[in-house]
Automatic annotation (TrEMBL):
Signal peptide: 1-19
Recorded superkingdom: Eukaryota
Pfam families: LRR_1
Membrane topology category: Single-pass type I membrane protein
Subcellular location: Membrane
Cellular component terms (Gene Ontology): membrane
Gene3D superfamilies: Ribonuclease Inhibitor
Gene this protein is translated from: LOC113718134
Keywords: Glycoprotein, Leucine-rich repeat, Membrane, Repeat, Signal, Transmembrane, Transmembrane helix
Organism of derivation: Coffea arabica (Arabian coffee)
InterPro entries: Leu-rich_rpt (IPR001611), LRR_dom_sf (IPR032675), RLP23-like (IPR046956)
Name the UniProt record assigns to this protein: Uncharacterized protein
Length: 412
């Protein structure tokens, strides 16, 4: 689009959404839109507003929703006229190369509910200045340039439901104070930072989280006892979280409710060698995944529920026979079964062929013996079959020739 002047005629306009329309060739684009004083909602996401979005006087002060994400502003500063939009509820400025101090910007925005500053270059002072915006429900400061520690005042944002500070370089220690009043919090993403969590074993958080994303921060050494009080968790990502402890038995008591559990790359041991608490099927439409790759699990595992979509127990010290799928009334929905790099012995159980939707089967680097079951050739969706580096013997069954979808076959 080259000319936007026609828009001035729309003097009653309250909502204007031009997201995805290329406005980079429009001269004085925002100035033109500024002639519409009744606007309450303006969305210009990804419009190529590569410019200093300057306004000497801002007219659309009735705006309650302003989305300017993905525009790559070239002056790296938050437009000063934003200060005057004190009635904003929603403000989106993600992916704009923005940096610089924004002191006081939010002081007057006492109705601000939803703030997305993700994928910019803001530093930790921004976080500090937001700790007073008590109306916030949603705060995204992911993928910025924040260093230093998180101010404990963030724990005063009592209406916060979603907090995302992931992928920054935040350091220091997060204590219970940082969560003091966060009773409404449902989704917490702190992944990919440098800080440590230090809370007591008796801590009972005020929140009931649904999504917990704490990969590559220091949660450990102990298994987080506070998880025991969290009854609504659906997503739990604690990859690479420096936990060196045994998985407590109470964890299994509710882990069937969590449809995504990822403890990749910790030092977990495991006393509870059964998924016996996981009898209940998950709600429809979920793809339950359990990833315990690269830990120190030993002992044997009798069975696993076949409604698990992905089970990855590779790079542990598991012994005994390959765990059997527990095929109940429901259709077996396991797609990924990854048990490589363990100490499993005996033969490959034919029961694995009951996993009729299996796409990825990796049993490599174990001590399996006996023959390759003929019935593996009956798994029509199999894409990857890796049985390498075991002690298998006998003929390779020609039924494997039925696997018309197969991409990768390792039998070495
Ligand atoms: C937007 O328009 C400008 C100028 O007309 C052009 O150079 C640019 O490639 C366009 N951007 C996209 C994403 O199409
Ligand atoms: C809006 O502000 C501009 C300055 O950017 C001013 O020239 C213009 O008169 C104002 N328009 C209306 C409709 O208020
Ligand atoms: C913002 O408001 C102040 C005081 O109401 C006014 O002096 C100033 O010109 C306004 N700035 C813009 C860019 O509209
Ligand atoms: C937050 O508000 C308090 C009291 O109103 C004030 O003293 C403090 O300077 C404010 N902090 C920030 C970072 O704006
Ligand atoms: C949480 O943060 C990580 C790291 O930035 C990111 O990959 C992931 O998409 C985020 N998850 C959600 C649900 O926002
Ligand atoms: C963790 O918190 C406890 C109790 O507040 C304190 O004694 C200890 O020094 C803290 N550890 C770290 C590493 O901050
Ligand atoms: C684990 O976290 C550390 C920081 O604590 C990071 O340097 C490293 O790259 C992460 N490793 C993986 C495999 O994610
Ligand atoms: C596991 O523990 C060892 C020390 O016993 C340590 O060197 C290693 O970094 C730990 N690994 C993880 C992923 O925490
Ligand atoms: C074969 O598997 C054994 C047992 O897991 C392992 O120690 C060894 O490194 C593996 N060899 C290769 C070549 O991967």
């Amino acid at each position: 689009m080259k000319d936007l002047r026609w828009i001035v005629g729309l003097s009653s306009l309250e909502g204007l959404v031009l997201s995805g329309v290329n406005l980079s060739a429009v001269e004085v684009g925002l100035q033109t839109i500024n002639m519409l004083p009744s606007l309450t909602r303006l969305e210009l996401v990804g419009c190529g507003l590569f410019m200093n979005p300057h306004l000497s006087q801002v007219n659309f002060t009735s705006l309650s929703s302003l989305e300017l994400g993905e525009n790559n502003f070239n002056n790296y500063m938050v437009p000063p006229w934003l200060h005057n939009l004190t009635g904003l509820h929603d403000l989106g400025l993600s992916s704009n190369h923005l940096s610089g101090p924004i002191h006081g910007l939010f002081e007057q925005m006492t109705s601000l509910v939803d703030l997305n500053l993700g994928e910019n270059l803001f530093d930790a002072s921004t976080l500090k200045s937001l700790c007073n915006v008590s109306s916030l429900n949603y705060l995204d400061l992911s993928l910025n340039d924040m260093q230093g520690s998180i101010p404990s005042e963030i724990g005063q944002l009592s209406k916060l439901q979603v907090l995302d500070v992931s992928s920054n370089s935040l350091t220091g220690v997060l204590s219970e104070d940082h969560f003091a009043k966060l009773g409404e919090l449902k989704s917490l993403n702190q992944s990919e930072n440098l800080f440590a969590l230090n809370v007591s074993s008796w801590w009972v958080p005020r929140f009931q989280l649904r999504d917990i994303m704490m990969s590559s921060i220091k949660v450990g050494l102990l298994f987080p006892a506070w998880l025991r009080t969290e009854k609504e968790v659906q997503w739990l990502d604690m990859q690479n979280a420096s936990i060196s402890d045994s998985i407590p038995s109470w964890f299994g008591v509710f882990c069937y409710e969590i449809y995504f559990v990822d403890f990749f790359n910790n030092n977990l041991t495991w006393n509870l060698l059964e998924f016996k608490q996981m009898k209940k099927s998950p709600p429809d439409g979920n793809s339950p995944s359990t990833v315990l790759k690269s830990n120190k699990l030993d002992g044997s595992l009798k069975s696993f529920p076949s409604y698990i979509y992905e089970l990855d127990l590779s790079q542990n010290f598991l012994t005994g026979h390959i765990p059997l799928p527990d095929v109940g009334q429901t259709v077996a929905s396991t797609i990924f079964l990854i048990l490589s790099d363990n100490h499993f012995t005996s033969s490959i159980p034919e029961d694995l062929c009951k996993l009729e939707n299996l796409k990825y089967l990796d049993l490599s680097n174990n001590f399996l013996s006996g023959r390759v079951p003929l019935c593996l050739g009956n798994l029509p969706d199999l894409l990857v079959l890796n049985l390498a580096n075991n002690s298998l013997c006998g003929q390779i069954p020609s039924s494997l020739g039925n696997l018309g979808q197969l991409w990768i076959l390792h039998l070495n």
